[in-house]
Amino acid sequence: MRDRRAYLIRITTRQSLNRLRSMRSRKEAYVGPWLPEPLLTAPDVAEDVELAESMSMALMLVLETLSPTERAVFVLHEAFDVGYDEIAAAVGKSPAAVRQIAYRARRHVDARRPREAVSSEETRAVLESFRNALESGDLRGLLDVLAPDVVLVSDGGGIRQAALRPVVSAGKVARFIVGGIGKNEVSLTGEPIVVNGGPALLIRVDGEIDGVVAIRAEDARITGLYYVRNPEKLRPWTREDLDPAVRSVSR
Questions:
Q1: SS3 72
Q2: What is the C-alpha end-to-end distance of the chain, expressed in Å?
Q3: pLDDT tens profile 59-94
Q4: CA-wise closest residue to 98 among 112, 107, 87, 111
Q5: What are the pLDDT digits (tens) for 114-138?
Q6: Which of 18, 75, 103, 121 is the most buried (most CB within 10 A)?
Q7: Is 132 strand, coil or helix?
Q8: How far apart are CA 112 and CA 217, in angstroms?
Q9: Which of 214, 215, 251 is nearest to 39 (CA)?
């Protein structure tokens, strides 16, 4: 049984490494910032702070800054508690080298994690304030809920309009939202959902799905906004049967 487990770990890891390397080469030609595909998750996941953080859009972005080998070692050891000897066999390195890789990857991730875990209730409260300001076009309300050094990352994939680089600071982010997404007197609404283990909004413009916004919150303010507009990543969200699924999962 142990040999079978080691074999599965080795095969799965090597397939994953091949996939990560292939994706990295495609991302080099990607237009604008890249964000992970938003994944609809059950509400009870958001109640488990540690599990939710491990699935969050923010952590997914941090993991993307690791090399494929660093990412494989980190996920195997931190998420699945696989021993260094088994990881070494899977990635084709010595156990000592794997320990060093794990140490570097853990330091890299820890340095970019939030200072403290935020409960789902706190995140939902912040998101609701953001939603109210968004739907009303309230610039002052947006400024109140955004941290001074907030960062907005938008992913249009070169298909939909999006900022070609991250937008930094509350003032610039608020103006980008009001002058960009909410321009021309459109009807802008945000539907509460749960993606990647955390509260988020499904954004509609004049009733049509425009994108998915996930957030990162600290100290009752939003420090990170992750807006996926790329239609290729929104295909599961534009199915005709989406609305009942969203309603049943997000409430």
A1: helix
A2: 42
A3: 888 887 888 899 899 988 887 888 999 999 889 999
A4: 87
A5: 666 677 788 899 999 999 999 888 8
A6: 75
A7: helix
A8: 14
A9: 214
